[in-house]
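Data card: per-record layout.
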Amino acid sequence: MEDERAAQQETAADDKGIGVDRIAAFSDGVFAVAITLLVLNIDVPQVSQQFADVKLPAEIWALWPKFAAFIMSFVIIGFFWIFHHMMFRVIRRHTSLFLWMNLMLLMCIVFIPFTAALFSEYPSTEIATMFYAGSWAVPSLILALMWWYATDNKRLVDEQYKDISGRHATFAFLNTGLIFLLSMPIALINVGAAQYFWLMLFPTHFMLGRYFGKRGS
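The structure for this 217-residue chain is written out next.
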């Protein structure tokens, strides 16, 4: 076990050409761009100035699917960024594999404005709902893998790092990914039921928090 850990740390040390701070800074920039692009999916209504007071309220109300998709996508990307930021607060080294996993995660994040626009335009369709769910499932599973990889045997973190924290984060994102994945076949039967199934995120994350909170106390 000690030999394996020493080999892992040696490999990580060999890959220090790009510092952890640079990886985090680059990632923050990508998150910022993706979260900003979301608002570009909402077009300003075009109505005649003469009838703006009469027609504009209805035109703005017709945009509610776009507003809903914007808010939901903004919040979820925000959660991804928060936990990604928390991960890089404890990571002290990296490997080439970890770099590639991080790039795959960022590729998924910058793709989300497209799936959000598609979903806001066709919220009641199977394909848009499945596409949107998939765009959240994949980065969730990648982030779960990144947490596991970084904290397993303290591969990329300090010896003082608590294993329970890494397991909590890993299971939290694994849970998120599975819920979105399970909603995809449900959408083939009932689109509304699939979208309501996303609400399972709240009780399941609450239960995970309670479970790991007790384990860590």
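Known properties of this structure: The two ends are 27 Å apart (CA to CA). The first helix runs from residue 2 to 14.

See the next section for split statistics.
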